[in-house]
Amino acid sequence: MKYLFFVNILIFLLSSSCQSDVKAPIDNHILLLDSIIRIVEADLLPLEADIKELAILSTYLYEQGGINELAQNGDKNKYVKVQNGVLHQSGDKIDASTVFVSLSTENKEIALREVYWTEKLDSAFKEIIDKRPLVSQVYFNSASNFSRLYPPYVFNTVEPDVDFTSFNFYYLGDELRNPTRKSVWVEEVYIDPMGRGWILSLIQPVYYEDELKGVLGLDITVSELMRRFLRNSDKKLVIIDSQGVIVAGGEEAIKALNMPPLKNHTYLQTVNTDSFRKEDFNLYKSKSKEVRRMASKFLLEKENYQKFELQGRPFEAYSRKLNVMDWYLVDIHD
After folding, report:
1. Which H or E element spans position 19?
2. How far is CA 103 from CA 4, 7, 164, 250, 294, in A?
3. For 20, left (φ over 0), alpha (ψ -120 to 50), or beta?
4. Looking only at Cα atoms, what is the longest distance across the chain?
């Protein structure tokens, strides 16, 4: 009886040792993913403070007397109308934003007043661009349907009567979708109307006297974001959102998943609505049952490790969720 007891103890110890040996490499991969995420998020998190400061400044400008009084201080002679509602500041000021007043604005007089008022934001926009290399552009989209954008840009890809409030980088900041009135990461990447390709945005509503006056935005190109993830690793990394859509990824990782190549996109025609990634890039829509199963394990069951087979080749995948948004960083091994 004693002999049987010691045999069982030995079997238990050996089994525990084997499980530890298997678990250790998985833990190491997860720790590596965590370290990559921490490095990238160290660049993302300060942006939340930056855009909050911009919102405070914007509200402060309203508090100084309201839009009508502030507009009287604007120098209308600084602006030159080019075409289709685009206004440029005269002279050679490289630190001035480009302004676009949509033809669909309900009250052009109010919109123009806000143009003069928001001129005070230009220096703050420039400061963010100068100190945050990750940010490609900063903007304020007004409820009166005009846009102030820095660095300056030619609005030749935007319809003259575009409704800025119809884009996700505006409406996801409104009170219905953002009742907390805090900054929001627009996790569903979209094609930038300004032609910079796929974009991740951080937006922040601006309120005065309990009324939404507009939405501030900081844009990051997905290509630059992916470079941040890849620069510290030679692994096959891919980022997927909570719906299973590939946000970005290294070429080898995309091939391993048997997905179509991701291409940066710029508009060849003018646009007036959101454009999102096609279902071709959704792991849940993959022709491979193994890939669909892997997506479910990571996104629904919150597992961190999964084996799968694709076209006769065995793969291992490790997953870790980001902290600042509902995205997942996946590392693929063959």
Report:
1. helix 2-63
2. 87, 84, 11, 41, 48
3. alpha
4. 100
pLDDT by 10s per residue, the chain, length 334:
555 544 455 444 445 444 444 456 678 889 989 998 998 899 999 999 999 999 999 988 777 756 555 455 556 666 766 666 666 565 456 678 888 888 888 888 888 888 887 888 999 999 999 999 999 999 999 999 989 999 987 766 778 888 999 999 999 999 999 999 999 999 888 888 777 788 999 999 999 899 999 999 999 998 888 888 777 667 888 999 999 998 888 888 888 888 887 766 554 444 455 555 567 789 999 888 999 999 999 999 999 999 988 888 898 999 999 999 999 999 998 8
* Sheet (strand 79-81) strand order: 79-81, 86-89, 98-101, 146-150, 137-142, 211-221, 198-208, 184-191
C-alpha distances (whole Å) from 207 to each of 111, 147, 244, 293, 305 are 16, 17, 34, 44, 44
**pLDDT value at residue 274:** 58
Amino acid identity of residue 52, one-letter, is K
Question: Mutual orientation of helices 2-63 and 222-230 as an angle, nearest 10°?
Answer: 140
Secondary structure (DSSP) of 226-243? HHHHHTT--SEEEEEETT
- Helix, strand or coil, per DSSP, at residue 185: strand
Cite the DSSP H helix spans in 185-330: 222-230, 251-256, 289-299
Q: Is 78 exposed, middle or buried (0-12, 13-18, 19+ CB in 10 A)?
A: middle
Q: CA–CA separation, 275 vs 252, rounded Å?
A: 26
Residue with the two structure tokens 């160290």: 42
Of the candidates 276, 273, 270, 275, which has an alpha carbon nearest to the alpha carbon of residue 166?
273
Amino acid at site 332: I
The closest of 157, 160, 124 to 145, measured between CA atoms, is: 160
- Residue 140, beta-bridge partner list: 148, 216
State the DSSP code for 261.
P
Q: In whole angstroms, how far apart are CA 41 and each of 140, 217, 238, 321?
A: 24, 18, 16, 12
